[in-house]
Amino acid sequence: MIYRPFDLLRRLRVAVASLLLVSATGSYALNTATIVGSVASPDCLEYRVVGICYWLFCTWTGCTVRTSVKVRHYVPDAVVSSYSNTGENPWTEVRFMSPPNATAEDGGDGTTNEDHENNLAKFKNADVIGHPGGQLFSEFASSSGYFCEGAGTAFMPYLLSTLDTIAWRYNIPESVYPESLTPGLREVGGRTTVNLWGNVYPRGGFLHQADDHKAGAVVAQRAGDVVTRRGQIHVYQPLLANSRPGYWPAGALKETDASTGKWQELTPRLSNTCAVFPHTGTLTQAEQGDYAWALWRPYACCERRGQVFLGSIDFF
After folding, report:
1. Which of 137, 162, 216, 267 has the maximum number of C-beta atoms within 10 A of its C-beta?
2. Are 126 and 158 in contact (CB under 8 A)?
3. Do the beta carbons of residue 8 and residue 140 sit within 8 Å?
4. 3-class SS at 272?
5. What is the Cα gyration radius of the chain?
């Protein structure tokens, strides 16, 4: 049976609505099926036609200039998990990737989550693993028109903090970076708005934050910050694509800047929208201190219609 694009879009939305109904009734185990179904989010996709590309097409009879539509949208590149207990990634099928080892055995916090104890440290492990919903996403995105490929490969580990012990647990060498020592530099939120969630540097598992959800979000931001840059002093592999004619991939992730990436909460509350940290939405506390978000990243591209790319013009 063949479904028209709008039929497919409707079915995907129904599937997401069903998952959201389940999540609203109580906690659930985050599994691959739930993550795959979550890609049907028009808010996260944010599909737009932004310009025109020009191509030189040549045959033995001569050359002509052809055009194609330039589009921009977000792609779910990875699932970023932030969790307290080592070896207990909330995404159940990938727990085997980051078990405790001789250099990363324990986890947990130095606080009982009471506000007056916010001077005590919290610790979160973090895993960045390729989003498994690529096939369903391509079907969902294609219903809007031509779509771009992301940088992520399904189930590919880009960062496992249990293998990044020196940087993640001891903050070596980032504890002496200017970003770590300068108040107000590279922070999630703002001091003047009284909505400071935490500092991006040093990009490790420890921070001071009374709210466990905010702590998990900051650690996820740190992990995303690492994998979207090359040459960082961490054990990881970059989550980046190379540009080519007619293809403009996402660059470095930057906190509070949606134009570099945004987050879709997967657990403890499944959301069908995306946002940057900090945000004013509901902050559900996870009983076991385990959180996960899909990291959506912006890409632009146009269909190749000739041998030579001549350039592009953006509408805005």
Report:
1. 216
2. no
3. yes
4. coil
5. 21
Tokens of 196: 């400071």
CA distance 292 to 272: 14
pTM above 0.90? no
Token digits for 131? Answer: 């989003």
Q: What is the DSSP string of 145-162?
A: SS----S--TT-EEEEGG
pLDDT (tens digit, 0 to 9) for every residue of the chain, 316 residues total? 333 333 433 444 434 434 433 433 334 579 999 999 999 999 999 999 999 999 999 999 999 999 999 999 999 999 999 999 999 999 999 999 999 999 987 776 665 556 555 556 899 999 999 999 999 999 999 888 899 999 999 999 999 999 999 999 999 999 999 999 998 899 998 877 778 999 999 999 999 998 999 999 999 999 999 999 999 999 999 999 999 999 999 999 999 999 999 999 999 999 999 999 998 878 999 999 999 999 999 999 999 999 999 999 999 7
Separation CA 295–CA 81 (nearest Å): 10
113: left (phi over 0), alpha (psi -120 to 50) or beta: left
Asked if omega into 278 is within 30° of 0 (cis), the reply is yes
Write down the domain spans for the chain: 5-314
> In sequence order, what are the residues at sequence separation of 6 or more whose Cβ sits closer than 8 angstroms to the Cβ of residue 295?
76, 77, 78, 79, 80, 128, 131, 224, 253, 261, 262, 263
Q: How far apart are the C-alpha atoms of 58 and 12, rounded to whole Å? A: 41
